[in-house]
Amino acid sequence: MSTLAPITMVGGGLAGLSLGIALRKAGVPARILEAGSYPRHRVCGEFITGLDDATIERLGIATAFAGADRHRSVTWFRHERVIGRNVLPDSARAISRFTLDARLARLFTDAGGELVTHTRVATPTDEPGWVQTSGRRRDDASPWLGLKLHARQLATTDELELHLGTDAYVGLSAVEDGWINVCGLFRRRPGLQFERDDALPACLRASGLPLLAERIASAEIRSGSRSAVAGFVFDRPHATDDTVQLGDAYAMIPPFTGNGMAIAFTSAALALAPLIAWAREEQSWSETCHAIRAALARKLRRRLTSAACLHPAFLTKTGQRFLGAATRTGLLPFRPVYQLLH
Description:
By secondary structure, the protein is α/β, with parallel strands linked by helices. It contains 9 helices and 14 strands. The chain has a single domain, classed as FAD/NAD(P)-binding domain, CATH 3.50.50. It is about 35% helix and about 25% strand. Strands 3, 4, 5, 8, 9, 10, 11, 12 and 13 form a 9-stranded mixed beta sheet that branches. It has a 5-stranded parallel beta sheet with strand order 6-2-1-7-14. Helix 1 runs parallel beside helix 3 and helix 6 runs antiparallel to helix 7.
């Protein structure tokens, strides 16, 4: 049997690690270049919807989800008042990135993959066999700030709480070991001053969510879990020739969908067969890139378009009022909207 061509993933997040695992299981030499290290906390909702069992099995990563919570019930709040409750059509997986990334990294190296940490690639490359899985494209003009922490001894009213505030929304969901992931998206406020450890409560108070800020301030905070990210945009795919971009490098979906982690895994699964074919010299790199872009567009276009249209409703006064009224009166077509996003 001829030697298979190696594949390099630039970025060791969910897309890069899961793709690397699947490539190694297919016998393809795989290397991941990761700027950071494992394990570490990342700004992430840690609440996964839109990910089916078939994708997990195809990637060979089922054991990484061992012990993950399964949630279906959601309570919605607007400025501290309950505006509705829903039950998801399908249960969502809840697991911290701290745990999930570490498990995936171990699966990759145990499968014979080469994991190179503390290595940053400055610019994307169109070199054959290189796959961009390094996450979001940076935009310093972005108005968004993402904040996250894990809290314990934090009373919650449901499996998932979604709080709408002024130019902000925040999700709370249980992950492993009794921790509650608190992750929020905020519009940046020039002049807002706070100490680093008070960033999330300060932004909550500024967004009209003081009671939630008090709940978090009185809870036990997991050491090292406070995380922040800025300079990102919720964008659509960029048309590029002879490059493969997966996960957030392909497109970022607004976090209210719970779909960001699912898209990382889904994009890796869609890229798997074309990349194996290239490694076997069964098709050119250009053909491989075209096949992956086409598969991503077919699978993800509806999700991304629907999320982009709905996202303003979660952040504007008018949109939030509409969501509240539609939820209270039972007029919100929750199930059809959910299906559009998944």
